TrEMBL record:
<comment type="similarity">
    <text>Belongs to the thaumatin family.</text>
</comment>
<feature type="disulfide bond">
    <location>
        <begin position="148"/>
        <end position="200"/>
    </location>
</feature>
<keyword id="KW-0732">Signal</keyword>
<dbReference type="InterPro" id="IPR037176">
    <property type="entry name" value="Osmotin/thaumatin-like_sf"/>
</dbReference>
<feature type="disulfide bond">
    <location>
        <begin position="170"/>
        <end position="179"/>
    </location>
</feature>
<feature type="disulfide bond">
    <location>
        <begin position="36"/>
        <end position="228"/>
    </location>
</feature>
<dbReference type="InterPro" id="IPR017949">
    <property type="entry name" value="Thaumatin_CS"/>
</dbReference>
<feature type="disulfide bond">
    <location>
        <begin position="180"/>
        <end position="187"/>
    </location>
</feature>
<protein>
    <recommendedName>
        <fullName>Thaumatin-like protein</fullName>
    </recommendedName>
</protein>
<feature type="disulfide bond">
    <location>
        <begin position="92"/>
        <end position="98"/>
    </location>
</feature>
<feature type="disulfide bond">
    <location>
        <begin position="77"/>
        <end position="87"/>
    </location>
</feature>
<dbReference type="InterPro" id="IPR001938">
    <property type="entry name" value="Thaumatin"/>
</dbReference>
<dbReference type="Pfam" id="PF00314">
    <property type="entry name" value="Thaumatin"/>
</dbReference>
<feature type="signal peptide">
    <location>
        <begin position="1"/>
        <end position="27"/>
    </location>
</feature>
<feature type="disulfide bond">
    <location>
        <begin position="156"/>
        <end position="166"/>
    </location>
</feature>
<feature type="disulfide bond">
    <location>
        <begin position="143"/>
        <end position="217"/>
    </location>
</feature>
<keyword id="KW-1015">Disulfide bond</keyword>
Amino acid sequence: MSQMGYLAKLSLCSLLVLSAYLVITQAANFEIVNNCPYTVWAAASPGGGRRLDRGQTWNLWVNAGTAMARIWGRTGCNFDGSGRGRCQTGDCTGGLNCQGWGVPPNTLAEFALNQYANQDFYDISLVDGFNIPMDFYPLNGGCHKLSCTADINGQCPNELRAPGGCNNPCTVFKTNEYCCTNGQGSCGPTKFSRFFKDRCRDAYSYPQDDPTSTFTCPAGSNYKVVFCPLGQPHILMPGNTSSEY
């Protein structure tokens, strides 16, 4: 190989390394921890899915500019050796490796990275109901820590009860009063949204609950999601502990 050819190859390698470095440094790390006394099958869009036994962690990298992203936990799952199966709560396309969003009820950590004015946006949402207590917060220490740790499953109104979780009223009644399908300002708080809001003050309790539920942090922050941050053995629901995978 000529000296010029060698230098060209070296320059190309350096460029590839630099490009890979820039992609990594622009991405955010989400440290997803299962502190529940049962297995949680973590799911992310984008990101896929991962089984987390008690005490296990999944480090997920998400590219800057990602919007409409979410992380949640699935319970009561049974997957075969190829990763096919179903979950009692939060199921997504019947697979361990999630494609798309989960089936309610499921507690959501939602985020959009580096969207406006060099800011990340993040929230905990109960718009799809509740299945697992959750903490969600940036690791830089300067931004708001979100927490939803109440026993919502145990206290869930009868109309909203579901196996392994507590539905949001939109899932049950499918009307504008609860779903806000007729546009901005078409709905407001209800007795059911107040049930969620009273127990998780920082969380979205209905679709237009933005003013008290959306938080920002400087772009480039890393984040942590903790399932059952207080341990909470009373959250354990039947069917949450077994799996074939």
